[in-house]
Design brief:
single chain; disordered C terminus; 3-stranded antiparallel sheet; 10 strands; globular; FAD/NAD(P)-binding domain
């Protein structure tokens, strides 16, 4: 059975898809959704009532078989660590936890509103530099200046998208070629090379598991001589 009967509707409070990545990314994703036959409804909220999805504003009602909804994020409250109303840890641009001495935090548990792996690595860089400078390392610690990067997996030509949401580091970009290196899904100064190297090592191990590597020394006329080694 094909999927011709299937209709997909994507409803979001965003004005455009991936709005946080900038207008170019939003237009690109909107085009991809339209090309796949997926309806986009932006600047809207929904409620579920007796098998219907009600879209506000407007009160449009959709008969639905399945609803996939993202959960509301709530932080994990740690005794002795200050948190905001949603349970996330407030930090300054260097990762210092508000109201505490020599306590640092980075990543999704902090109160920074965007939760994304690449941003978490940038926060961690700022924390590491701050700690290193505090114990005497000869460096100038740089604060967290978020640059949002993401690889959009389309099932065809993937897109690389970048937006310096803090400003002062160029304009938002969308490209079919890599905008950072190595071109991993999670972009980070140290994490991306680590993940890239690990993936390459895994690929080598898979090849070794499927093949028998043979090395031999050729004789003067190109004929095989005594094998030098087999692994």
């Amino acid at each position: 059975m094909g999927a011709d009967w299937l209709e997909l509707v994507f409803v979001t409070p965003e004005s455009r898809p991936l709005a946080i990545f900038g207008p170019a990314a939003g237009e690109t994703v909107a085009g991809l959704l339209a090309g796949a036959g997926i309806e986009f409804v932006g600047s809207a909220y929904t409620t579920v009532e007796h098998g219907h999805l009600v879209i506000d504003p407007g009160g449009r009602r959709l008969d639905v078989n399945r609803v996939v909804s993202l959960p509301r994020l709530e932080g994990l409250q740690i005794p002795g660590v200050p948190v905001d109303a949603a349970g996330f840890v407030p930090v300054d641009p260097r990762g210092c936890v508000a109201g505490l001495q020599r306590v640092y935090a980075a990543g999704d548990g902090t109160a920074f509103p965007i939760k994304q792996g690449g941003l978490a690595t940038q926060q961690a860089d700022a924390v590491a530099e701050t700690i290193a400078a505090a114990v005497g390392a000869p460096i100038e610690a740089e604060p967290f200046r978020p640059v949002l990067r993401g690889m959009l997996l389309t099932g065809g030509d993937d897109r690389f998208i970048r937006n310096p949401i803090a400003g002062g580091d160029g304009e938002p970009q969308v490209a079919s070629h890599a905008l950072w290196w190595p071109p991993s899904k999670i972009a980070g100064r140290y994490l991306a090379p680590f993940l890239f190297g690990r993936d390459e090592l895994d690929a080598v191990e898979r090849i070794r598991g499927d093949h028998l590597a043979v090395e031999t020394v050729l004789g003067p006329a190109g004929a095989p001589a005594v094998p030098a080694g087999v692994s």
